Amino acid sequence: MSNPFFKNYGPFKIDKILKSAGLKNINNFKNFKIHDIKDLSTSTSKDITFFHSKKYFDLASKTKASFCVTTENLKNYLPANCNKIVVDNVLLIIAKITKIFYPDSVFDGFDITSKEITKTSFKKKIKYGKNVLIGKNVKIGKNCSIGHNSIIEKNVIIGNNCSIGSNVIIRNTIINNNVHILDSCVIGKKGFGFFPDKKKNYRYPQIGVVIINDNAEIGCGSTIDRGSMSNTVIGKNTYLDNQVHIAHNVKIGENCIIAGQVGFAGSSTLGNNVMIGGQAGISGHLKIGNNVQIGGGSGVINDIPDNTKVMGYPAKNLKDFIRENK
Questions:
Q1: Cα 105 to Cα 92: distance, rounded to the nearest angstrom
Q2: C-alpha–C-alpha distance, residues 231 and 83, integer Å
Q3: Gap between the Cα atoms of 100 and 321, Å rounded
Q4: 39 CB contacts (<8 Å, ≥6 apart)?
Q5: Per-residue tens of pLDDT for the chain, all 326 residues
Q6: How far apart, in whole angstroms, are the C-alpha atoms of residue 94 and residue 49?
Q7: CATH architecture group of domain 12-105
Q8: Alpha-carbon distance 90 to 42, whole Å?
């Protein structure tokens, strides 16, 4: 889905985009207009995209984008009709280009549009505690409750029969029906996305949202970062224990159970019916299959196929782990 919250300031001519990112124009496409920046799979002929890892070569070969920021080693994976913009640091350049289209997504200061709930139309529609604040562009369904000292910041949609605990902060998030957010969660803030650039760190704009699907539960003190280019997604009937961290672009399937203090690095994908024990760590850009079980304290650094049980660091087949640790 396209982002419903951040304003796209495009279209821009390609030469302006390249100049603003510190690059030279290619093939003199001065009058070619780019409407948006998207990932490889959702790009159209009006968009610019990026390709920075061989892991995504299949998506790269099928992209419909007119322009793609990539490296010399990867450019030949792209279709012939896609104009290649070859750079040394793809992610740094794409961060600069994203900022051109979505300048409002870079910073996450406190929401100055927030008002006390007693001064909004929600005061008669939901059950709420003390010191509750509601921001601009917020929608809340029927039979919902919000605990003490919670802030529903701007750009949030909450479905029916949802409960939001105390000391919770939510923004840039779509929550579907029958979802429970427990105390002290922070959902929808920008992720840990930045790149070293000479003597400073360059912050990557986070233009995605968080989507929490029906019947999910998010445990106390958990943090879920919004997506950078795509969205961060929690599947139906998935339960997160306390102090779980979900980084940007992570997609968790349905009926998953994630125990306490598990951490996910960015852009990893979990299938359905996945169970993860406490204090496990999942590295970025991995694919975890359906019906996978990951033992507590494990460190996952490789993809895991369907119907597999793993444990240890690096995580390996459970039978092998037991045999090696008798």
A1: 16
A2: 26
A3: 49
A4: 49, 50, 59, 229, 230
A5: 456 788 899 999 998 899 888 887 666 666 789 999 999 999 999 999 999 999 889 999 999 999 999 999 999 999 999 999 999 989 889 989 999 999 988 878 888 989 999 999 999 999 999 999 999 999 999 999 999 999 999 999 999 999 999 999 999 999 999 999 999 999 999 988 777 767 778 788 899 999 999 999 999 999 999 998 889 999 999 999 999 999 999 999 999 999 999 999 999 999 999 999 999 999 999 999 999 999 999 999 999 999 999 999 999 888 888 888 87
A6: 8
A7: 3-Layer(aba) Sandwich (3.40)
A8: 18
- Asked if residues 319 and 301 have their Cβ atoms less than 8 Å apart, the reply is no
Instruction: State both tokens at 236.
Output: 């139906």
Output the six-digit token pair for 263: 């951490």
Could you tell me the residue ranges of all domains in the chain? 12-105, 115-324
Closest by CA to 300, choosing from 323, 280, 278, is 280
* 248: annotated active-site residue: yes
Tokens of 22: 């510190």
Domain 115-324 homologous superfamily, CATH: Hexapeptide repeat proteins (2.160.10.10)
User: Sign of the C-alpha dihedral, residues 169, 180, 176, 117?
Assistant: negative
Q: Token pair of 210, please?
A: 């968080």
Contacts of 2 (CB under 8 A, 6+ apart): none
- Please enumerate in sequence order all residues whose Cβ is within 8 A of that of 3, keeping only pairs 6 or more positions apart, or say none: 207, 208, 209
Q: Taking Cα atoms as reference points, which of 66, 70, 73, 76 lies closest to residue 29?
A: 66
Catalytic residue among 35, 52, 148, 248: 248
